Sequence to fold (295 residues):
Amino acid sequence: MESSNIREIISKVRQIDIKTKRPVEGIITGAYLSAFKGTGIEFSEVREYQIGDDPRTIDWNVTARMNRAFVKEYIEERDLTLMIVFDISRSSEFGTVRSIKKDIGIELCASLAMSAIRNNDKVGLMLVTEKVEKYIPPIKGKRHALRIIREAVFHQPVHSNTNLSVPLARLSRILKKRSVIFVISDFQDDAQRFKKPLQILNNRHDLVAVRLWDVREQELPDIGLIELEDEETGEQVLVDTSNPGFRKKYREMVESKNRELLEMMKRLEIEMIEISTSEDWVRPVMKFFNGRAGL
Fold:
């Protein structure tokens, strides 16, 4: 790789790191730590029994030896694994207001990765379209987090369409240990197609869906004849947006798909963060973390 390309990569990764320091600092101050509990508990020490202690924690061997009650204390094990699934299909490159969906996804990937590393958690990345474009196994360390950011920024997808069922099914086979999984996508896919692999992952892991959306995907403006292009297939069609009936039909179709997705997530008991390209993504993410932490 040429030195100029290396410098460009380092520069862009640093820009993302600097840009996400504010949200990372906000997320890291207790929210991330409190939102996701460890995988279990480990023994810490034995101390003398105090009024209010759970009798089930009494260490009978020490109690018999000391002729007074002692209890075992445990601490939460913080050995978490965070897996980020990031949809980089062609529709992620759409945005009409403040940002494109992919840029928001990259910043969120960076913030989650840095938050995990600062809590000494493992973090991995899976970049997906209709296939698994890139898989980085979860490990610890800042250099590893910077690699995740670099791949999220610079990876050029081979495929353009979305088929979440394929990468989700593969991830289910790969991840053996219970993990926290963030699926970042616009979910412009047939919900019934990825329902089963999503459900299997959610049953085994702590799964959070992050839906990125743009206002122009929800409702067409009245601007006369325009050529619409499918964001993934590239197929083009001429439509008359001045026709109220057409705009109404389009809005109803989008609302129906959104409702189907929301109802499916609710049935599967999967929490979903919704982020619009017109807003600061930190606010809904912090709201989710604080809700998880009971704040």
Observations:
- The first strand starts at residue 40 and ends at 48.
- The CA atoms of residues 202 and 270 lie 7 Å apart.
- The two ends are 48 Å apart (CA to CA).
- The chain has eleven helices and ten strands.
